[in-house]
Design goal:
Blueprint lengths: L1 H15 L3 H19 L6 H25 L7 H9 L20 H55 L8 H8 L2
Helix pairs in contact: 1-5, 2-3
Protein name: Serine hydroxymethyltransferase
Length: about 180
């Protein structure tokens, strides 16, 4: 069932990109919603209000154009304006997004699709992290081996009190300089 819903979301997304007006309408709607959401968190509120008003005007013009040229279901301007004025603006479903065949709305399906994508990214990230940690552990093992090789003469000197193989103290110091 989940796979069918994921397919529905993918089909919905591909249908949504069919026409320039559809893309413009959706983009303007989302942009206005986001700007209104952040309006009171930013200092230049008057400029933001002006931009929101300009985008709202362009949105309504695009909806009017869409309603004039399309044979399909028209967009109800009053519904769009009402959705923009409430907090449920993200739940706008456009006529070109298609009907539900199974009684589950596209937003529910999209939410599940988003959760599946998050799980997929988490699994991928886990694989990458495990690989990186294995590489890091190998690096540390190699480093331990190198340190042990460098420390071997030092421990021999401390145990016996003499330098190995006829190396003088100055020669040993020269070898230890990295």
């Amino acid at each position: 069932m989940l796979e069918l819903w994921v397919d529905d979301v993918k089909q919905w997304a591909s249908k949504g990109s069919a026409g320039c007006l559809q893309i413009s309408i959706e983009a303007l709607f989302v942009s206005i919603c986001q700007k209104k959401h952040y309006l009171y968190r930013q200092n230049d509120r008057n400029k933001r209000r002006q931009k929101i008003a300009q985008e709202k005007k362009r949105l309504l013009e695009d909806i009017h154009k869409y309603n004039q040229q399309r044979d399909g279901d028209p967009i109800d301007i009053n519904t769009v304006v009402e959705k923009l004025s409430t907090k449920s603006a993200e739940s706008m479903i456009w006529p070109w997004q298609g009907p539900n065949r199974d009684g589950v709305d596209i937003l529910t399906k999209k939410g599940l699709f988003d959760q599946e994508m998050l799980l997929s990214r988490l699994t991928e990230e886990k694989q990458i992290l495990v690989k990186e940690m294995m590489q890091h552990c190998q690096y540390l093992k190699d480093s331990v081996s190198k340190v042990q090789t460098l420390m071997a003469p030092v421990s021999l000197i401390t145990q016996t009190g003499s330098y190995p193989n006829g190396i003088t103290e100055e020669g040993y110091k020269a070898l230890c300089v990295f």
